[in-house]
Amino acid sequence: YKTTTILLDGKRVKLQVWDTSGQGRFCTIIRSYSRGAQGIILVYDITNKWSFDGLSRWLKEVEEHAPGVPKVLVGNRLHLAFKRQVAAKQAELYASRNKMACFEISPLCDFNIRESFCELARMALHRNGMERLWRSNRVLPLQELCCRTIVRRTSVYAIDSLPLPPSVKSYLKSYALTSSQCLASSHQAQALLAHNGRPLAPLASNAKNLKCKTPTGSGSGQWHRSSGTGIGAGGGIGNNVRNSCVIS
Length: 248
Hints:
Blueprint: E1 2-8, E2 11-17, H1 27-35, E3 40-45, H2 49-53, H3 55-65, E4 71-76, H4 88-97, E5 101-104, H5 113-127, H6 131-134, H7 142-153, H8 166-178, H9 180-189, E6 193-195, E7 198-201, E8 210-213, E9 222-225
Parallel strand pairs: 3-4, 4-5
Antiparallel strand pairs: 1-2, 6-7, 8-9
Helix pairs in contact: 5-8, 7-8
């Protein structure tokens, strides 16, 4: 257990850090502490494939006892990259599937440690709605201005193609998940009308351009747009609306 204070976007944030063991005999302790946690860091050893394979078991425990809590995946011992058994791309894909930020750190070189804790603190503050209490009148740092510009002009799917280091790409993805642009996009995606699990109209504002045709032959209805991209039988949309904040 340790209490520390970090500087996050020009503001001091106090963290209470509980370092639990990954051994199975401490499973009960981990369950009790995860219930009250505001953020969780899952750590594996990049030189030990077994430690990475065991993440799924701990992730299941976390989702059961602390659902929705922000999580960060951390690969330790980056200074031993020449002994690597877990590829960085493999870890990034695993983190993306489970909606986690991803970092590789080196305590020996003091690399990415502060960044991983700051990212988790930022996600926890955003989840609890506390950002509005101290972000309203502050001057945005250069790093966040750059992130906002990139996220606004680039979809999450295109971040991997940018000529940036993997750690920066991972940070941009996690920033996109917690940014206001992400929330706006998700609200827009929720405006889709659904019928039997399939969308009928891309946006409510375009609903007036649609008209129903009496089904013939088979039982499936046919929808046609009076202008623009047509919609096929069964409710399939020609132009799908992509939620730019979902990392696949």
